């Protein structure tokens, strides 16, 4: 299938694997990816929910990013096609490199000659997705399809934990110091317990009838992740765009 055991292990158990090769679905061409460990939820109904991120590694250019998700119960997978498993994509390549990493250099050169070029970079970035055909062929998407097919067939639910509450960990992969927050303990600012912007991974067990929300800002504001009934394993909060950025949390009725 062109998806090695190393790739599946990185996704299901971690740690992240960098520059691993995955073949295009139905082809022989390989592409290099950085594969992060997925987040897993076992719902109270016994359904496994998978959410993860895979990055298409590009030399000298900004990587392509893909976020994906699917559900599995027994051998039934939903959605059953890899195209529909893709939640979000961000094209990298040449255009994103010019408007990202190289922008400060371009602005500095423009300033030296007395020209404000920042607006031109912004305009280019605005149309980056339409210009992505300049970067590469999109064969890497066929490799992602291959990866998702293999992952959805091979992934299995971990053993569910007992005891309601949430455990925050200092490092990803449930490493470093940890903080346990019991059921119905609302915290307006984690600074009060010495944990502001420190959590990199977590395990949360939510009983039936309740839900838990964790927020980027204090007083339950900003972007958030919501957990329903079940056990949730998030090995790297960066996948959810809240790595080292959790500031408050609260329990409410479902």
Fold and architecture overview:
With 254 residues, this protein is an alpha+beta fold. The chain has helices spanning 5-12, 82-85, 93-99, 103-112, 118-126, 140-154, and strands at 17-23, 30-35, 39-43, 48-56, 64-73, 76-78, 86-90, 165-171, 175-182, 201-206, 210-217, 221-227, 230-234, 248-253. Strands 1, 2, 3, 4, 5, 6, 7, 8, 9, 10 and 13 form an 11-stranded antiparallel β-sheet that branches. Helix 3 packs antiparallel against helix 5. The radius of gyration is 21 Å and the shape is globular. The model is unreliable at 132-137 (pLDDT under 50).
SSE layout and pairings?
Blueprint (H helix, E strand, L loop, with lengths): L4 H8 L4 E7 L6 E6 L3 E5 L4 E9 L7 E10 L2 E3 L3 H4 E5 L2 H7 L3 H10 L5 H9 L13 H15 L10 E7 L3 E8 L18 E6 L3 E8 L3 E7 L2 E5 L13 E6 L1
Antiparallel strand pairs: 1-2, 2-4, 3-4, 3-13, 4-5, 5-6, 5-7, 8-9, 8-10, 10-13, 11-12, 11-14
Helix pairs in contact: 1-6, 3-5
Order of helices and strands: HEEEEEEHEHHHHEEEEEEE
Helix content: 10-25%
User: What does the largest sheet look like?
Assistant: 11 strands, antiparallel
- Rounded to the nearest angstrom, the distance between the terminal CA atoms is 42 Å
The unreliable regions are 132-137
Give the rounded overall mean pLDDT. Answer: 84
Please state the CA-atom Rg, rounded to the nearest Å: 21 Å
Percent of residues in beta strands? 35-45%
Q: Provide the structure class.
A: alpha+beta
Q: What is the total tally of β strands?
A: 14
Please give the count of helices: 6
Q: Write down the overall geometry.
A: globular
């Amino acid at each position: 299938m062109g998806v090695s055991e190393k790739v599946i292990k990185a996704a299901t158990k971690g740690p992240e694997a960098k520059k691993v090769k995955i073949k295009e679905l139905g082809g022989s061409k390989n592409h290099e990816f950085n594969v992060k460990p997925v987040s897993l939820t076992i719902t109270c109904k016994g359904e496994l929910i998978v959410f993860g991120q895979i990055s298409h590694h590009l030399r000298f250019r900004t990587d392509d990013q893909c976020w994906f998700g699917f559900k599995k119960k027994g051998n039934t997978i939903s959605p059953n096609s890899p195209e529909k498993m893709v939640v979000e994509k961000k094209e990298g390549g040449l255009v994103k490199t010019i408007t990202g990493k190289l922008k400060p250099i371009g602005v500095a050169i423009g300033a030296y000659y007395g020209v404000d070029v920042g607006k031109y970079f912004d305009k280019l970035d605005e149309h980056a997705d339409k210009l992505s055909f300049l970067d590469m062929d999109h064969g890497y998407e066929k490799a992602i399809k291959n990866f998702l097919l293999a992952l959805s067939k091979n992934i299995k639910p971990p053993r569910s934990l007992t005891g309601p509450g949430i455990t925050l960990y200092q490092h990803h992969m449930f490493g470093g110091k940890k903080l346990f927050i019991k059921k119905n303990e609302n915290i307006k600012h984690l600074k009060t317990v010495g944990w502001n912007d420190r959590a990199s991974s977590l395990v949360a067990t939510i009983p039936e009838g309740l839900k838990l929300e964790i927020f980027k800002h204090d007083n339950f504001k900003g972007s958030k992740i919501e957990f329903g009934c079940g056990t949730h394993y998030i090995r790297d909060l960066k996948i959810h765009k809240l790595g080292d950025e959790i500031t408050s949390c609260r329990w409410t009725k479902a």
